[in-house]
Write a structure and sequence with these properties.
108 residues, alpha/beta, 5 strands
């Protein structure tokens, strides 16, 4: 099985200056568990629903004022859509990542 068979085809890229509340609404409206954070197709990080709860809300941040760049993970694991799922799964487990952007070209 290839990654393309299990991946979401609806990635969302939000600007780092987006508020945490707006990111949460984007997740809700798109039924997404994570969002890419970046600008002009360049990814700077990723934020998950868990990041919002654990890094933001549990620490008392104001989600309507504070920015998503303050709770995102800047280390992003990526994969290729033609990569075998088992290869991706091994990498993903070693990073304990909750989300993984996928590229269209050549991974094996």
């Amino acid at each position: 099985m290839k990654v393309r068979e299990i991946m979401s085809r609806r990635p969302a890229l939000l600007d780092p200056s987006t508020t945490i509340a707006e990111a949460a609404r984007t997740m809700r409206d798109g039924d997404l568990g994570c969002l890419l954070i970046g600008r002009n197709e360049q990814v700077f990080g990723i934020v998950t629903d868990r990041d919002i709860v654990v890094r933001a809300l549990a620490n008392g941040t104001n989600p309507t004022r504070d920015r998503v760049c303050n709770v995102m993970s800047s280390e992003v694991l990526s994969c290729f859509e033609d990569q075998p799922v088992e290869n991706w799964r091994r990498s993903w487990r070693s990073m304990a990542s909750a989300g993984c952007p996928c590229s269209t070209a050549g991974g094996g």
